[in-house]
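Why does residue order matter? Because the sequence determines the fold. Keep that principle in mind as you read this record.
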Amino acid sequence: MVGVSVDEDIGLIPPFIEKYQIKYPILVMGFDPNVSADGFVLPTSFLYDRQGRIAKIYTGIVLESTFRSDIESLLAEK
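Structure:
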């Protein structure tokens, strides 16, 4: 799992990581006012299968129980 930040002020990222005790890597995409994010929902999460293909796309907040269930289903696949 990785997080992706699109914050304009990258100085906001370390306090956010500390406050929420984030243990996974955070990638910084940077901010470009010339690039439109129309239609892109944050957060968006991608769940990949064993072959590296996208198995699920989640938009918005997702419950941990949903992630666990979907991951367990993928792990059970042969």
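The chain is about 25% helix and 20% strand.
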